[in-house]
Amino acid sequence: MQIKFVFTITILLSLLMTACNNNSPKQQFMKGPWSGPFGTQMGLTKLQIERYTMLAEVGTDGQTFAGQEVPNDYGLKFDSVVYSINSVEGLCALSLVTKSDEDIGILRQKIEDVFGKPTIERPGKYVTWDKKNLKPSILIVINYIPNSNVIKVFYPNADRCKLL
After folding, report:
1. Which residues does UniProt assign to the signal peptide (predicted)?
2. CA–CA–CA angle 30, 34, 39 (5° rounding)
3. Which CATH number is correct for 32-158, 3.40.1000, 3.90.660, 3.40.109, 1.10.150?
4. What is the pLDDT along the chain (164 residues), one digit of tens a residue?
5. What is the rounded distance in angstroms from the CA atom of residue 115 to the CA atom of residue 73?
6. Is residue 107 left, alpha or beta, with left meaning phi > 0 and alpha meaning psi from -120 to 50?
7. Under DSSP, is residue 125 helix (H, G, I), strand (E, B) or coil?
8. Are 71 and 34 in contact (CB under 8 A)?
9. According to DSSP H, which parts of the chain are helical?
10. What does the pLDDT look like over 126-156, one tens digit per residue?
11. Which DSSP category does 77 fall into?
12. What φ, ψ does residue 57 adopt, rounded to 5°?
């Protein structure tokens, strides 16, 4: 009887540890980094993003937060990171600034590797990957400004967050 009890407890503990495995899809969704640009994805909560960076509210709209990092920075350093996180929709958009013109070239290549050639390009001004042609559908824009390049990612819920 006692052996049966110990055996049952051992199996239950084993099942519990398997269910709590950090590599399960549910745990991966909760922890990140995620599969979208910069290790993010549409709909992430403020709490999920705060696992990677402290967030400070910026402005008065209640959904704009400054951070210091993104879950996947592709080995690059960003001078500014701003998340647009709606209380209902979750993460709607992401804006990053890099002063490095060299880093922006590296970043552009990484985006092209995933999403292909841009849909609109104005040399020296901006480049856009249009959400209509992307899966998952998102809009990525790089604005070229010497020593202050801006990268913006808009998720499909951006219009419901009043960002587009």
Report:
1. 1-19
2. 130
3. 3.40.1000
4. 555 544 444 443 343 344 444 444 444 455 667 878 898 999 999 999 998 899 999 989 999 999 999 998 888 889 999 999 999 999 999 999 998 888 888 989 988 888 888 888 998 899 998 756 555 578 889 998 887 899 999 988 888 888 75
5. 17
6. alpha
7. coil
8. yes
9. 2-19, 25-31, 46-49, 101-115
10. 999 875 655 557 888 999 888 789 999 998 8
11. -
12. -65, 135
For residues 39 and 140, give the distance between their C-alpha atoms in angstroms, rounded to a whole number. 14
Does the reported pTM lie above 0.85?
no
Residue with tokens 């209509």: 132
Give the residues across from 85 on adjacent strands. Answer: 91
Rounded to whole angstroms, how far apart are CA atoms 28 and 32?
Answer: 5
Amino acid at 77: K
